[in-house]
Every structure is written in structure tokens, then in C-alpha cells.
């Protein structure tokens, strides 16, 4: 497999052109050597460092530092600028975006991390949300009873016992990714829209209680992740290709053709 683009002076423009029809997902390991973690910490802004200091557990603090540092490095790759100089703004619900005045064009991104992994999604001029969860059975029952819609509760109850944990985390990541893409936080009730969640069933937004046309505008895609994790990408619009990306080196990217799950999907008109 050969890289799609080389690291040269025009790479930022080339990548941004590709983002018109692609969504790039970076899969990141949060366990990093001390020297690398210190380097990533040096990229953080004062407010990010202050937030890192508030984590009680060193494991959680280190995960935050690596995820935010890698976000800066990845965005610097697209923007062709110093990662430490990138500035963020935050919506009233806390969703990050690139601050104005940085020649960011229409670059949109979202981040999720759980346990020892993170995912970072990057695209252009379309809303995007991503969620990642390490599958822990202890989280299932208290959340399922409170946040399933009536129809989802009924469907969940009909599953075989051995299917329920996988189904729950498919449901959870698909809902969280969609809510994060909307950028409205907890103001979106999880029981007021439905997603597919049966094991083996393609990811899909079924309906929302506030917009009957939403399933026509939003595409959900499950992510290929390490065993024990599940994750979902939610993107506004249908005409895009999912491309898994690797960490950039000094000379080239690892954006490869042929990765599992990067095929383009046509809008399933017959489904609506």
C-alpha cells in the first residue's frame, strides 16, 4: 500500500481538498512513554494544563494530556502550523472548535477517549461527532433503564442475554456520537431519538422526536477498533468516505488506501 499524499509544502492544501469528500479518523493509544507524554504536555495551553491538574487519578490525567496533545499535533498537520499555537473556542455545551483567525477554513473535528484509547475525527464543512467506549458490563444496567426510549427498552428486553452487553455499547456510542455532532450536550434527551443497536445491524439513526428528516441527513458508521472497544462516527451528510489515518511522520502521512471500513456508502433511499 502506498501513502495517499507526501509531506511537502502543499500537503495542507491537498489534505483539505480531500476532506471535502472524506472523514479522517485517527486511532490513538494513550499509553505513551514518559518522554513523549512530557513533550505532548508542553504543547498544551494554560487552560488545558489547569484542567489536567484537576484529575485526581494520574491515569486519567495522563490520558487527557496525550489525547489533547495528539489532537494538537494532528490539527497542526492539516493547518500547517505550530501545534502549541493552535487556539480553541468552546460552545456553551463545551464542544471544542478551532478559534477564528487561524485560517482554519471549514475544518471540523471531534475527540473521544476511553480507558487506553482515543479517536479523533477530522473533516471539512460538515458537523461531526465521535464516541468511543471500553466495554465494561458494570455500566450497562443503570444507564439502560434510565435512557432507553420505550421502543428501545422493548427491543433490548427481547435480546438474548449474551447479546445485551454488545448491544448496549452499540446503542450508547451511536447515541453519544450523534449528540456530540449536534453540539447541544445534555439538552438532547437520549430517549427522544432512536438508533439501531442489534449486534450485526448496521449503524443508523432511526428517528428523532424533533425532526422527521434527520435520518435522511445523518450517517452513522461503526469504527474498527481494538478488541474490547466499540465506537461510532456520526457525520452530517452521506457523500463521504471514511479513511483511517496513522500518526504523521516527518516525511509522510500514514493515510492508507485499502483500510477496512473506508468504503463510500450511497444514501439508502429505500430505508426511509
Describe the fold and architecture:
Residues 1-11 and 247-272 have low confidence and may be disordered. The strands form four sheets. Strands 4-5-1-11 form a four-stranded mixed β-sheet, covered by helices on one side. Strands 6-10-9 form a three-stranded antiparallel β-sheet. By secondary structure, it is α+β, with helices and mostly antiparallel strands. The protein contains eight helices and eleven strands. Strand 4 (107-114) and strand 5 (117-124) form a beta hairpin. It folds into two domains: 12-125, Ribosomal Protein L22, Chain A (Alpha-Beta Complex), CATH 3.90.470; 134-239, Alpha-Beta Complex (Ribosomal Protein L22, Chain A), CATH 3.90.470.20.
Task: Give the topology, please.
Elements: H1 11-18, E1 22-29, H2 34-42, H3 46-53, H4 58-79, E2 88-90, E3 96-98, E4 107-114, E5 117-124, E6 128-134, H5 140-147, H6 150-157, H7 164-182, E7 193-195, E8 205-208, H8 214-217, E9 218-222, E10 229-236, E11 241-245
Parallel strand pairs: 1-11
Antiparallel strand pairs: 1-5, 2-3, 4-5, 6-10, 7-8, 9-10
Helix pairs in contact: 2-4, 3-4
Amino acid at each position: 500500500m502506498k501513502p495517499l499524499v507526501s509531506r511537502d509544502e502543499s500537503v495542507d492544501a491537498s489534505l483539505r481538498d480531500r476532506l471535502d469528500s472524506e472523514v479522517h479518523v485517527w486511532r490513538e493509544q494513550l499509553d505513551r512513554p514518559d518522554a513523549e507524554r512530557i513533550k505532548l504536555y508542553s504543547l498544551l495551553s494554560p487552560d488545558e494544563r489547569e484542567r489536567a491538574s484537576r484529575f485526581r487519578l494520574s491515569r486519567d490525567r495522563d490520558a487527557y494530556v496525550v489525547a489533547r496533545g495528539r489532537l494538537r499535533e494532528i490539527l497542526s498537520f492539516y493547518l500547517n502550523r505550530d501545534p502549541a499555537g493552535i487556539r480553541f473556542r468552546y460552545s456553551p455545551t463545551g464542544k471544542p472548535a478551532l478559534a477564528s483567525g487561524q485560517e482554519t477554513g471549514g475544518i471540523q473535528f471531534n475527540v473521544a477517549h476511553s480507558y487506553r484509547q482515543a479517536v479523533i475525527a477530522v473533516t471539512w464543512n460538515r458537523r461531526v461527532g465521535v464516541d468511543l467506549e471500553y466495554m465494561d458490563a458494570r455500566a450497562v444496567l443503570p444507564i439502560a433503564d434510565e435512557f432507553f426510549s420505550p421502543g428501545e427498552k422493548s427491543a433490548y428486553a427481547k435480546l438474548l442475554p449474551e447479546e445485551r452487553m454488545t448491544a448496549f455499547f452499540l446503542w450508547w456510542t451511536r447515541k453519544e456520537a450523534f449528540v456530540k455532532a449536534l453540539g447541544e450536550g445534555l439538552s438532547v434527551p437520549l430517549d427522544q431519538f432512536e438508533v439501531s443497536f442489534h449486534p450485526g445491524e448496521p449503524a443508523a439513526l432511526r428517528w428523532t422526536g424533533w425532526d422527521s428528516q434527520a435520518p435522511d441527513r445523518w450517517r452513522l458508521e461503526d469504527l474498527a477498533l481494538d478488541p474490547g472497544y466499540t465506537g461510532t462516527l456520526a457525520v452530517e451528510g452521506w457523500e463521504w468516505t471514511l479513511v483511517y489515518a496513522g500518526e504523521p511522520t516527518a516525511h509522510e502521512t500514514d493515510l492508507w488506501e485499502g483500510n477496512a471500513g473506508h468504503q463510500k456508502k450511497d444514501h439508502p433511499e429505500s430505508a426511509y
